[in-house]
Design a protein that fits this description.
Layout: E1 2-4, H1 27-41, E2 48-52, E3 60-64, E4 74-75, E5 80-82, E6 92-96, E7 102-107, E8 111-112, E9 120-131, E10 146-153, E11 159-162, E12 171-174, E13 186-191, E14 195-196, E15 203-211, E16 221-223, E17 226-228, E18 233-239, E19 247-248, H2 261-264, E20 285-294, E21 302-310, E22 331-340, E23 346-350, E24 361-373, E25 377-380, H3 394-399, E26 403-406, E27 414-415, E28 419-420, E29 428-437, E30 448-464, E31 471-474, E32 479-482, E33 493-495, E34 531-532
Parallel strand pairs: 1-33, 1-34
Antiparallel strand pairs: 2-30, 3-30, 4-7, 5-6, 6-30, 7-29, 8-29, 9-27, 9-28, 9-30, 10-24, 10-29, 11-12, 12-22, 13-21, 13-24, 14-21, 15-20, 15-22, 16-17, 18-19, 18-21, 22-23, 25-26, 31-32
Length: about 525
């Protein structure tokens, strides 16, 4: 059976995000909102698509209604559990718009997403009441008060043994083989086992190499997470309480900055100018060299040594913010991790040549932006996705046969955008909802952001093609229906589109940097063995 497959329909755009608390409020972002909402609400017009979603245990993978306390959720001072407003029962989570300034995080417990079967999809959604009117109070084209949804993938440990750019045969590398480098939003660790520091203190010696984003443009920068003077960062840490707390190790190679955005963006503490802390780090390009750390302060204690790498939300091997890869950024490499006593005798050593006996432990996660949104309403043309700014009311907009767009939740409780989680099947993840406020309410002051009824669920999808060579014949007392028998042997052609080839000559992304687009549809399982032409 041959299938002619003309692309259409699934069209999702991921927008590159800026560094600071304010983001550009431009037509690219608005178009993304329209298309995202359109994808969620408009059914497939080509094939019959039956979606079976319910509230039964069969469909719900994980859910939280905040009725029984916090249940493993973590949040900072910008969030609270409340009974002032709620979507169901009596409670929700609130980030109040009370003249606060900052970036406030609400993080779910760790969730194990399952693998799903053929014709099944996993989605994430929640209900929200979005009353943050100061999205652009001073009309400067920058977002001021808004919220952001992200996902932390904990099944993405990047440290591994590799011969890529190695010191000897193999080395430990924080990077991805296929990309020969690293991605944005990483917080990655490589730990030694617990080591008994010599009674005379001794030293840590390690071969190190890195090729990561440098500090250009970072000096004395204020971002929503705090003060920084560096971007992507690598440093070395030590713990003497079995990994509960960590301290910075300072060696004979001075750190390049005091506060890296690679740490702050991933929710580690931002640093302070002139003070070395866990926010300090190296950056730029450094070839293989030995770094020595004095361990005398930790004499006779059991310690774990940690090699840490953090990358911020933009500029990595796979993209420079304008969509162009940066192949010279290779990541972080270490080898020959050795503890010596004061006389120079090796006490313990870990190399990447240990193979199956390797005892180094990798951990960490990647932080991925799902979308961000703000309190907004406007008029647009559903055919062109262009804005009709001359219509400033819903009545006038719809009267002109256009569509009045309302951000989910901005007219009271509503369901959020539908997020497809197929890239995270089988992964351990946490969901992060961030409320971001500037330092004024020049666009108005509302209640803030309420979140309730968070759900991860699956949908079973059945697709039925229209019958081919269909014919109906009326006889005396019956109607005889005939169509092509799909079970007969031989070749046939099924076309999944509207029949209008002019609609599918191409897709163009305009006014968009570092965009990711998908076009396609779901193949039905009953087609069996096929050839796609």
């Amino acid at each position: 059976m041959n299938i002619i497959f003309r692309s259409y329909l699934l069209f999702i755009i991921s927008i590159a995000l800026l560094f600071s608390a304010k983001r550009e409020l431009d037509t690219t972002l608005l178009n993304s909102k329209i298309r995202t909402q359109s994808y969620k609400n408009i059914p497939n017009p080509v094939a019959y698509r039956q979606m079976q979603r319910g509230n039964s245990d069969e469909h719900i993978i994980w859910a939280e209604d905040f009725e029984n306390g916090e249940n493993g959720w973590s949040f900072d001072s910008g969030w609270e559990r409340t009974d002032l407003q709620y979507h169901s029962e009596n409670h929700s989570m609130l980030s109040a718009d009370d003249n606060k300034t900052g970036d406030f995080h609400l993080t779910s417990p760790l969730i194990q997403l399952p693998e799903v079967g053929l014709n099944e999809m996993i989605f994430f959604s929640f209900f929200l009441n979005l009353d943050m009117p100061d999205s652009d109070g001073n009309s400067d084209g920058l977002l001021e008060d808004y919220y952001q949804v992200q996902i932390k993938n904990y099944s993405n440990q990047a440290w591994h043994i590799s011969d890529f750019n190695s010191f000897s045969v193999n080395s430990y590398w924080c990077g991805i083989e296929a990309d020969e480098g690293y991605h944005d939003g990483w917080l990655q660790f490589l730990d030694t086992p617990s080591i008994q520091v010599p009674a005379d203190g001794g030293s840590l010696e390690v071969q190190m190499k890195w090729a990561i984003e440098n500090t250009l443009g970072a000096a004395n920068t204020d971002v929503s997470e705090g003060w920084i003077d560096g971007w992507d960062a690598v440093n070395v840490r030590i713990s003497v309480d079995d990994g509960v707390t960590w301290e910075l190790l300072i060696g004979d190679d001075p750190y390049d900055f005091y506060s890296g955005y690679g740490w702050a963006y991933n929710r580690e503490m931002a640093g302070e100018n002139g003070v070395h802390s866990l926010a300090s780090g190296w950056s730029g390009d450094a070839d293989w060299h030995k770094v020595i750390f004095d361990l005398s302060y930790y004499a006779s204690q059991s310690a774990i040594i940690r090699f840490a790498f953090g990358s911020d939300p933009a500029y990595s091997t796979t993209g420079d913010g304008d969509g162009s890869p940066v192949p010279e950024l290779k990541g972080v490499f270490i080898d020959d991790v050795t503890i010596k006593n004061a006389s120079g005798t090796n006490i313990v050593s870990y190399t990447a040549e240990d193979g199956d006996n390797d005892q180094m432990v990798a951990s960490g996660h990647s932080l991925i932006d799902l979308y961000h949104d703000w309190d907004d309403q406007y008029c647009y043309d559903p055919e062109t996705f262009e804005f009709e700014n001359s219509y400033i009311s819903q009545e006038d907009c719809e009267g002109a046969s256009y569509v009045w767009f309302v951000s989910p939740g901005s007219m009271g409780w509503g369901e959020s955008y539908l997020v497809d989680l197929h890239n995270f099947e089988g992964k351990e993840v946490k969901f992060l909802i961030r409320s971001i406020y500037d330092n004024d309410n020049d666009g108005g002051n509302g209640d803030g952001l309420y979140i309730d009824d968070v759900t991860v669920y699956k949908e079973s999808i059945q697709i039925y093609a229209q019958p081919q060579l269909f014919n109906g014949e009326v006889t005396d007392d019956t109607v005889q229906l005939t169509w092509y028998d799909m079970n007969q042997s031989g070749d046939s052609t099924i076309i999944f589109d509207s029949g209008d080839e002019s609609l599918f000559t191409g897709i163009t992304l305009t006014e968009c940097t570092e965009c990711l687009a998908f076009a396609g549809t779901l193949f039905p399982a009953w087609l069996g063995q096929t050839t796609v032409d």
